């Protein structure tokens, strides 16, 4: 069934995913409805392979069924589902029609719908991470590392509360994103590898399987192993829901790291700050009415998508509750989970593109730094006073900064003028006095730490 | 651009909305991407109509532009947007290409993108309520009223904590949903009528409009009036966000009422309770492996959709914050709001269908009632004791019920056997004793109240 | 039972509410556990008053019970609750002990716990709005109006996407908060007035009441009227939950308006922008290590509280679902709702204090404006070009701004230099040319609109 | 400062935590405000210990400071904080007053507030897990294991969609909770062990530390190691927020497992099902007006608390965003995180108590099972038909069950009566026919799996 993309209601389908053929092609096997059906057919075929391996069906059945899975179309399935209102039975019926009468009984043999659906979902979500999300996140990480290393020595004022605090380097600021993203990539990998399937029947007690298989848990393990999965340690009609919750938590917290980075970039692009900028294309329009505008709209977009998708984890948490051996109130809701991955994937691509061509302005960084360079030394001044024995150094310097703001004089000058503080000043070493004279040197170990973080991230993630 | 529906990622597009042509046709003008563009063209055309009315453009321009809006295709727009990365400017460019050079300058004249977009959104959401959501909710309400009135005398045990409490009637139970739904329909109507537009320019101060119009606020009022809207009392680049928040709150709380009703119905369908059932079609399959199953899956579905969509209001609340005269982090997120209305609309249709053919089983209702009929009189017994002067009636009856459960005797018998309580019993009037003998009569004013609630709902909502 | 405030776990109790005796005194009757018990005793006493009015109990009983409510202590109640594990029965027992045997039977006569609890909660939440929240919000509104009017002519650059857009005035920026807050105050008033009680018994069918009262709904109306309430149009064991949901929605969206204002203020306080500042006390410390810091921590605090409390509305929405005539899974959760009101109340007080002594810096506002004054005219230039017949004015000016940024020349100069555009320029009226020369005049109707919004808010809210 | 517990506004403080002295005593060091201050003093003292170890302060200073931490009272601190409005500086001032002038400069030397606060928080949350949450969860797990093993052979009908599905055992049903809880305990342990501290100064670049320490990262590692912590791989003013997000995710998903179990128990306690019951005390009251009620209120309570606290994770996710080197909008919000742990802890205790004295009714379990025993064989019948070569077994049995419901006959009888199906029946082995005759045997490997799950959980968690 064809639909004009503009008749869709989901912004993913008509805007962020549907028209982006490159992204769509990569994600489709794991997130589209077609992909879902194909993955479920794969589970059905895998069952028959395991049955044949055990001599429970005639040789050749597995190959026949595997070949038949290619012949089942989503259109056939949809028509059958419309007739009988049961999507897994519809799938089974469609598949059975494509095989010989001899093969038919072995399809879906002893399975319940959610043996197929939950197992296929685990397979899809795991592959989705391995084939798309993690590789794309690694690409983003690579870009961030490159940028952080390039800017590791670029002086920038560090800001807390939106106020100038102490100097850092722009590369150091980026290294925080590098480190956090590395952590999340690892978390996503772990959660993806830990997704589980199940082949334990209608209420999880292997009721049907036990009739035919000596060790139905072994059959479950064998079948799942062929799909690269392990079984849920316990199951009802469904897999324990916590494995998926962990996975979605990894998605959401990864999204949070992206949103935080994007948020910083858009603030650094504020007119008054202007330390970075989104690259603009020649023909690009910034505003329908203000021809001069250059908005950080891609960064804004990433944060906006995060706002749209983050709260949806509440649904996943709510779906941890399922009455007795299961109620169906997690069925429709769970169908929306792939959207979260798509939103993240699209945001990763966008952010990578923007960060890889980020325009930085070291001149403005220095200009901004100099706005408060004189006050920045308040911290080292107070600590040096303390180190040289002043019993109430913080308070002394706090008053000095008030004086500096009133008089316009520098802190170092005021320090030397003060009868109370001069004696301490005189004990300062030349190197210590130098720091107070050159606040731009007061960046701690920003540059080395940047290198260290990037190196560690590369090693941990296998980035060359 | 065509897409196979099964290549979509949104369950709305591939399952709940896309393939439901009847629902889709009705909703599309208000929720699809095509509908969005058309509504924005309508705003652009309305501007020119107002300009012409004021003599600010040559006679005939409005008609020319109005005619041109039909010629702008979504495909044209998408191509232009891909080129310049600004969707409203792209719309304006497309529209300008369809008109004479003389008409061109009046298109989008003095407007900013969000004059168009927010105004069009208000128009769409309002119409969506008026043309689809409210009529469909009224249909559901009509079904519920009919059912409540039909079952107003059907004895059912009232349950609190899942435990038998006091008797009611099934119609009375339904009348709660009637009343609550009536309240929510009214709330949705109010919120929809209160959605606002804006024609106040890039930062809300009518900067450009002020250059050309004597009273730009009057122009705003006139333009919006033609769309059935009033202006936002203040605006920045965007309309005050609280009007939409109220609207979404109305959607979400309406959904909650539906989910609560669905939840009750599915519990009443539990095997052990079996007081109601979803109608089943002849060919329908209940389970892929348990051919005997008849699951309340439509009721489960409604609750599941509610779980999927309710938490999304958090995004709308988050979008109340927009920096200064606006940041764009509410842009992508706001595109997903129509999905909430679609999910609700689909659930309304589904619930109406199920409720209109609900299978009820008065026999099972009575059977269940009788399980605890003997204990149900504990409440009237205690109150009658109190009314006749027993100073600690609740405690006395509490002990009596423990005795009843131990001995298997009825409360009335134990009451008469008790030396302490018999004197009070003897003061009971015959009518009072009758109540204790006939617990099925102890339904209060369930039936009358049902009628009263239904009558009031019909009057309030204009249901004949 | 006394507890050291620092042994509490709730930041409200140990930090934001508990130690603020002034705030606590005003809120306590409506939000503390003691206040809850007292309001429930009030409902019990009101019942007896109504019974006496109807001649259903001896004259004087109501007065006796009313007097007795003062004698029930929370400590008595807690001890009884610990004994019998039922808080309403414990309350009844305690009250009964304080009255004569003759009066005892009339206490709680025909009521169920939630007749008392839901009615008392409606009374408390309504009073809370009327006595504290709305008055305090009006105080804040008054401060904002004063500030907006004072600054109505103070030039400020309007910002979208964090980028300079078009000029406004600082008062105009504030007037948006004035307008939105006025809307929310009205919404809160409406929702508070619409809270409902119930006196309909254990399953809402007036089962017990019907035994003794000719018209139990009339008794319900009479009782509630004495508390200033109307009855829930339908009820189960509990009031329809949507009335409270509307109230909490009003709280949360009000909080959103506060958070948005606070967010803007903290960004305007950024070092590079420095257009406003939080007033600092002489002894106040900005940072434990950076003696020079002056952080917008009160504004940050308001946003932080909003982040902490806004998502909690999800619980209220979840509590719309209650099985059959009620399950208790909304009991503990509902106890936390008053915290939301406390968090809002504390934030209102804080924001009012900060806004009433906000430090503004018109000099920095102008300095910032001038950063881009030359580009600001791009919008009027493009619209004037269009108005004078240029068929593609936006594109022409877009290119001109790129040229301006490259060459450093002004847009007006470039306009005159351009062979293509000069002819249009020559048609500009002197007034139109004046605008392009004086971008600081291009503030639309910012000042008048500010006055209009403030006047309307004052009228609507009865602020003198 | 003392407060009467009933004047508190938090239900934790006045009801669930405050009055429960046993629980409070265990939790207080990690969740109360007093505990917070003490843990922060511990960090300050640890700094001096590390300084002394490196010869950076005179011998004996560390001991002096450590001793002084005991002398700082929360009251002192609160008074100082009220004076200077900076809680960490207030703490430092208080501590400095308790030491000699010689020791004073070394307190807080080179630290920023959040070096202390984030490190102390990591220490508290980790200890909270290790000392209270995990041990209590293990206690609950032990109770569940015991119960599951005791009931491993107790026949129960498995339910999906609230409908009878296939038979299991009650112990098997419980084993799902055992398994899921084991998984969550492990997740919580991992997340707790992974919480990180930081000693990297005001913007995370070790600016001050670098002035005085050769390797400030080594000092950070040493200091944190004394607290059992590792450093955040990167930091700004604060630790990377993902470590806490993982911890809260573990809390919330653990809570979900509890809520799911509680939800099942309360449904099994429904009057019509009555398979389990909460133990009731002799004097306990079930309803203020219905003396016969025995409500599953503890189970309801656990679900209610989950509803109240689960959505709060949204705040934690929102706090992943912090502008530049930090904004303070995560400050107030983060103070509420300990409440989530308290709510969970209280629910664990409650659930353990209820489950350890759960009343089970195997008679009712069997009675319920027998309601549909005849239909339960539909699944094995269909699979056996398929196994013996029937090409459309599911459809055949689906029709048979419709026939069974119409005629009242058993499926096995109908099978033998059917000309079409009898041939297959005749191929069934005696053992297979036996299954159809004895549906209560059709429990798969429920009992063995229960044992396996419990054994694995015990091993994994070190439960003897």
Structure description:
- Four copies of one chain form a homotetramer.
- Chain A has 464 residues and is mainly α.
- Chain A folds into three domains: 32-106, Fumarase/aspartase (N-terminal domain) (Fumarase C, Chain B, domain 1, Orthogonal Bundle), CATH 1.10.275.10; 113-363, Fumarase/aspartase (Central domain) (Fumarase C, Chain A, domain 2); 378-441.
- The first copy, chain A, contains 23 helices and seven strands.
- Chain A has helices at residues 11-16, 21-31, 33-53, 61-69, 74-84, 87-97, 113-150, 170-193, 207-212, 216-226, 242-268, 297-309, 313-318, 331-335, 337-356, 362-371, 373-376, 378-387, 393-407, 411-417, 422-427, 430-437, 446-461, and strands at residues 2-4, 155-160, 163-169, 196-197, 230-231, 276-277, 359-360.
- In chain A, the strands form three sheets. The first copy, chain A, has a two-stranded antiparallel sheet with strand order 2-3. In chain A, strands 4-5 form a two-stranded parallel sheet. Chain A has a two-stranded antiparallel sheet with strand order 6-7.
- In chain A, a hairpin with a 2-residue loop joins strand 2 (155-160) and strand 3 (163-169).
- The first copy, chain A, is elongated, with a radius of gyration of 30 Å.
- The two termini of chain A are 45 Å apart.
- Chains in contact: A-B, A-C, A-D, B-C, B-D, C-D.
- The interface between B and C is large, with 103 and 103 residues.
- Strand 1 (2-4) of chain C pairs antiparallel with strand 1 (2-4) of chain D.
